[in-house]
Amino acid sequence: MKKLLLYLLLLVGFACSKPNQQLTKITGKRLSIDTTLASDAAIEEYITPFREELQNVMKKPLCTAPVDLIKTEVNLQSTLGNLFADLSYEMANPVFQKLKNTNIDFCLMNSGGLRANISKGTVRTENAFFVMPFENELVVTKLSGAKVKELFDYFVDRRRAHPISKQVELNISGDDYTAKIGGKPFDINGTYYVLTNDYLQTGGSGMTFFANPIELTNLDYLARDAMLDYLKKVDVLTAKIDNRVTVTP
After folding, report:
1. 133: helix, strand or coil
2. What is the rounded CA–CA span in Å between residue 115 and residue 126?
3. Which of 79, 162, 183, 203 matches a 20 to 30 Å C-alpha distance to 170?
4. What is the 3-state secondary structure (H, E, C) of 59-73?
């Protein structure tokens, strides 16, 4: 009887033990996330209030653009680039003044950072996100005159309309150039405070002259937030091609 009970217990033990299973194959299929994918009613009900609130914020009118502001290059400038460089300087300089009790000398950004044009008409919150989808922060680099010369060399060599603020006057003739900053001739023995963003400061877009500055100040201010603050500040959004960069053969 005892042997029978022991035998039954062994059978039960083997029956309850987990089999030694091994994964031998994984299969899957691609699901397209488009209009053919059915929505979940419960999820839709949950997110609808948040979607509507976000749309109300993004569609809020801020100012008016009387003309299209675009990235199209004219003499190494663009209306959108000039606008962005100038508004970045205007909004960042008071912040820097409070921190350092001095002014930024000029601003340089990259044309690739501007991802959309601003069309004529009402300018809304969403436009700032279309133009600048990145979370780049504004920083100020204190550069030697030699580094600023590298900056100008880069600008002239690349022949791209990288946004540069109106404090600069760059006259390019062939491969040569002359430069003024704040109305004064560029001094290679001087030092300059140059506004840019954290991506470029670490060498993005090949702007290695921003790396290892004499001094680096993070303004804790997103470039997109500077644009939004400016759009809220003005009634009419304007920009033009001017004499900050002139090019002759």
Report:
1. coil
2. 13
3. 203
4. CCEEEEECCCECCCC
- Flag whether the pTM goes above 0.70: yes
State the pLDDT at residue 19.
Answer: 60
Strand order in the sheet with 215-222: 106-107, 191-197, 137-144, 215-222
| DSSP letter (8 states) at residue 186 | -
What's the structural domain count of the chain?
A: 1
Q: Residue 193: exposed, middle, or buried by beta-carbon count in 10 A (0-12, 13-18, 19+)?
A: buried
pLDDT digits (tens, 9 = 90+) for 99-123: 999 999 999 999 999 999 999 999 9
On whether the CB atoms of residues 115 and 132 are closer than 8 A, the answer is: yes
CB under 8 Å to 79, separation ≥6 — which residues?
Answer: 67, 68, 69, 70, 72, 239, 240, 241
> 37: which DSSP letter?
S
Could you tell me whether strands 184-185 and 137-144 are parallel, antiparallel, or unpaired per DSSP bridges?
Answer: unpaired
Assess if residue 25 is contained within a domain.
no
Torsion on CA atoms 54, 55, 61, 65, rounded to nearest 10: 110
In degrees rounded to 5, what are phi and psi of residue 78? -145, 150
Domain range holding 126?
Answer: 57-248
More confident residue, 249 or 215: 215
